[in-house]
User: Which sequence fits this backbone?
């Protein structure tokens, strides 16, 4: 169970790791900063929030600590020195004079200011004033600075809402209303625009719940509930989340969803929801951490530090279709499978420690025939997707005709729209995925033009062993094998996934238009159009005695 006392002890341990990272030599220009990658990052001022939690929480070993107070004050002095004239800070790795990255910083320190104001102590008042000054000065820059990505809107909305809650005399509500008037970018199934299950979904949820509290607008919590419901169904049995559909940096990464523990727990206590509480407990047990955000609900709501909420059991066997998100998720104990449209990895499956991270399909047709499902249809136990090859400017691949007049060097590409074309037919790929006993059957058909090279690429997490009729090999990253016929079994420890039957119509190691997989072990099955190929995927235990997979 997620327990307040445990979190505070972890907070103290975390403080011990932060102390050596802060520059406390008054002679240095970066005095008060925290060093990351050998440099004082301006946005590391947000690290002061962790120290602030420890300073204001009575159960912490650093409660009202003079050393921590001195470190917070020196850190805020550094922040005042390196902030831009706008009041904003740099994210030195990419964004400068950045309103949204300042929003992240303000979001982090605002709960500490609020809590410090409630402590009757001169040091706490100094903390509130020093961090509060950072916030007040940042507000004008956040109001006019704008954003880059969808989640930035909610980060800024939350940061400004928290700022105005702390300093109601300041202007800024008009800009918050403008952001919120855009409506939250979430579909009916709970999927945000960026599809970032391992990263930015958590940021959106946290930002919206913080804004909901500060503005007293409970309607902002409804998107949070939707995404939490979807997020649970995107989890594997080890607490990691499906990231193959992400459109941000977390794509393909193995992430335990500890960054969403705070929102699961917050909504659990607010709604009296035992399911959310059980998810928070489970995720935290898989990856204890996420500080200080895991403590934030307890900081804002001291009464929650006593937890008697009854937990619900978590389902581990289900098949769920999410039509708005165009996703299909199946959990059967250790088996965890995902199918989805709008992705070049339309199917993946994990069985315990072994993972088939992607099954992809591609034809060499003008390098525009890498499968990414455009349509999505889910019926009982099945999913169907289709993909049509398209040219850059036309619905099908084309060759351009001469125009019979001079074409400027600079305007060649612009004038393509004026040219007559010789068009080729579209190449249509249809994929059907069906859950069967022990695994899944994938049926792929590719029609529209004959004698086109086609491949099925099965990418496994490296480090396992590969078993096939005539041999055994290590599944090393960047290596490729062709499955000419029969089955191949890939196992990590006692967990195994088999695929097949194979086919061998060509020997393109890297087919034009396909994606490489330098960090995976790849099994290729090759065909020529028209294609009507069945791929059987089975999950089970590897029997060392019998040298075969056992279902």
Assistant:
């Amino acid at each position: 169970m997620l327990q307040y006392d445990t979190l505070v002890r972890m907070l103290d341990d975390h403080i011990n790791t932060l102390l050596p990272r802060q520059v406390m030599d008054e002679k240095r220009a970066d005095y008060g900063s925290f060093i990351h990658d050998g440099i004082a990052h301006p946005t590391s001022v947000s690290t002061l929030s962790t120290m602030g939690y420890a300073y204001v929480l009575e159960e912490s070993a650093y409660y009202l600590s003079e050393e921590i107070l001195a470190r917070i004050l020196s850190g805020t002095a550094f922040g005042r020195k390196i902030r831009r004239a706008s009041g904003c800070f740099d994210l030195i790795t990419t964004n400068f004079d950045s309103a949204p990255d300042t929003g992240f910083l303000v979001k982090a320190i605002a709960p500490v200011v609020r809590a410090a104001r409630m402590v009757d102590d001169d040091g706490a008042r100094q903390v509130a004033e020093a961090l509060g000054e950072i916030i007040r000065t940042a507000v004008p820059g956040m109001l006019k600075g704008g954003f880059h990505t969808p989640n930035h809107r909610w980060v800024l909305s939350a940061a400004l809402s928290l700022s105005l809650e702390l300093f109601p005399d300041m202007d800024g509500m008009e800009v918050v209303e403008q952001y919120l008037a855009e409506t939250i970018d979430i579909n009916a199934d709970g999927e945000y625009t960026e599809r970032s299950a391992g990263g930015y979904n958590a940021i959106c949820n946290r930002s919206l719940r913080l804004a909901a509290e500060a503005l007293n607008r409970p309607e902002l919590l409804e998107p949070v509930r939707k995404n939490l419901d979807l997020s649970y169904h995107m989890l594997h049995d080890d607490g990691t989340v499906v990231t193959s559909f992400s459109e941000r940096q977390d794509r393909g990464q193995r992430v335990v969803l500890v960054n969403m523990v705070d929102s699961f727990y917050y909504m659990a206590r607010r709604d009296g929801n035992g399911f959310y509480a059980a998810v928070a407990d489970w995720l935290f047990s898989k990856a204890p951490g996420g500080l200080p955000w895991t403590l934030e609900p307890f900081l804002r709501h001291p009464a929650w530090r006593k937890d008697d909420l009854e937990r619900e059991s978590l389902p581990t066997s289900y098949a769920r279709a999410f039509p708005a998100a165009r996703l299909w998720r199946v959990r059967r104990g250790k088996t965890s499978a995902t199918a989805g449209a709008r992705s070049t990895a339309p199917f993946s499956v994990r069985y315990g420690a072994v993972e088939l991270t992607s099954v992809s399909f591609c034809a060499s047709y003008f390098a525009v025939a890498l499968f990414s499902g455009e349509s999505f249809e889910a019926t009982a136990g099945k999913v169907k997707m289709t993909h049509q090859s398209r040219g850059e400017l036309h619905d099908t691949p084309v060759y351009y005709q001469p125009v019979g007049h001079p074409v400027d060097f600079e305007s060649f590409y612009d004038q393509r729209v004026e040219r007559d074309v010789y068009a080729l037919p579209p190449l249509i790929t249809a994929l059907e995925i069906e859950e069967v006993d022990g695994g899944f059957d994938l049926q792929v058909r590719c029609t529209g033009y004959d004698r086109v090279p086609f491949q099925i690429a099965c990418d496994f997490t490296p480090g396992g062993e590969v078993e096939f009729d005539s041999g055994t090999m290590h599944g090393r990253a960047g290596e490729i094998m062709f499955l000419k016929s029969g089955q191949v079994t890939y196992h990590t420890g006692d967990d195994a996934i088999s695929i097949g039957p194979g086919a061998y119509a060509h020997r393109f190691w890297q087919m034009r238009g396909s994606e490489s997989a330098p960090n995976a072990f790849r099994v290729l099955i090759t065909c020529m159009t028209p294609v009507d190929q069945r791929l059987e995927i089975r999950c089970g235990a590897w029997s060392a005695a019998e040298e075969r997979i056992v279902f």
Q: What stands out?
A: Residues 122-145 form the longest helix (24 residues). The chain has a mean pLDDT of 95. The CA atoms of residues 137 and 174 lie 18 Å apart. The chain is about 30% helix and 25% strand.
